[in-house]
Amino acid sequence: MSVHRTDSSSARRRRSGPAHSAGRGRRGPLWGGLAALVLLSAAGFAAVGWTSAGTGGTSAGGRSTASAEPGGPAESSPAPTRPTPGLSASPRPPASPSDDPPAGSSGEASGDASGGSGATSEADIPASGPGTFTTASGSSAKVGKGTVLRYRVDVEDGLDLSAADVARQVEQILADRRGWTADGHSAFQRVSGGATDFAVRIATPGTVDKICGQYGLDTEGKVNCNVADNVMVNLRRWLLATPVYAKDVTAYRALIINHEVGHFLGHGHVGCPGPGRPAPAMMQQIKGMFGCVPNVWPYDGRGRLVTGPSVP
What we know:
By secondary structure, this protein is α/β, with parallel strands linked by helices. It contains 6 helices and 7 strands. It has one domain.
């Protein structure tokens, strides 16, 4: 689910721009069929893998695609110039609680899903936190063309997450050539101080609910949102992903960032463009794939926008 609110002046500036071997004898057919199914299934999931196609071939610990290009053809169309209201009703301008997932085989991510040393379960996720944050130190180089959007990465205090590691993943996602920089006018730079255009903030479900709720959004302790200059990432989604991306949590993380930053840039929700086609990053994939195959990137490896019909 995703609803978006982009009230900041920088967000308004962006919107005003050009917008998962055959046997022998009588067993041969059966085993052959099973093998084919396995191969097809694996190929379908690999199509959304995470290998980075952007920053000098390095792979970010996101949850994206294993191939440089999502499986199947992609639609090429101009980016929308105005955001589309999200699904959650809001008494204020559109905001975006979003739980959309990305899939793929992970590349050089950050260990397991928790960033720690062991599998994470639902019971491991704290329901709430102090509501205070630690900002990742340091900065990154500018990526993309156009006026740079400065952002910081915040992690709620008390979480078993390294702010530096989270920042590295976010940097790699935003620098990937299949990301929003492919639009030709979006540029990003991570900073740790001074003026910023937006912040990527990982927080407990309770804290996400509180911050998103201040803008009239109900994230239900489950989903992410973009409100004003805050890209709020629900810790549950960051660590566990969704069923479609459960085997590649790092790939799912790319979908979170691409989807919510997409809202910040003024992009609204779209639907599946057709069976077998890559799911757009701005599609609410958590609500169902509707025949589309997993994909976490806004653009494909050839620089074509992966999109679909606009949805309310």
